[in-house]
Amino acid sequence: MRRLATGVLAVAMGWCLSGPAPGQPYPESDQHNPPPQRPQVPPPTDPPVKTQAPDASQQDQEYLEYLAALKRCQQLTGEQRGSCIRETKQHFDRM
To answer: Who's near 62: CB < 8 A, 6+ residues apart?
Structure first.
């Protein structure tokens, strides 16, 4: 019985010592395997599509100008911001 216990203990210690220890890197053969590559997608040959249609109506242009003016007001602080927003709304009749 004692020989069997000694043999089992020796096999268990061999298994424990044969693998990488926690915090230790895997053998070099595993480290240098490159990751799987994604398929290459060819770049589009068409020019990018413009987001704004060139024949926008007058109302659309005024709305875009209004939004741009409000965006400029957002850069200001305090009372300047409030007065800028009021003036912009008054100018574009958006009260």
So the answer is: 92
Mean pLDDT, residues 2-30 taken together: 70
User: Is residue 22 in a domain?
Assistant: no
Domain of residue 78: give its range. 58-91
**Model pLDDT for residues 25-48, shown as the tens digit of each residue:** 655 555 556 666 777 777 767 666
Which alpha helices (DSSP H) does 1-95 contain, by range?
Answer: 2-18, 28-31, 58-74, 78-91
Structure tokens at 10: 């020796």
Count of domains observed in the chain:
1
Residue at 14 is within a domain: no
Quick check: is 75 in a domain?
yes
The pair phi, psi for residue 53, each rounded to 5°, is -70, 140
What burial class does residue 89 get, using C-beta atoms within 10 Å of its C-beta: 0-12 exposed, 13-18 middle, 19+ buried? middle
Q: Mind listing the pLDDT tens digit for each residue in 57-92?
A: 778 888 889 999 999 999 888 899 999 999 988 888
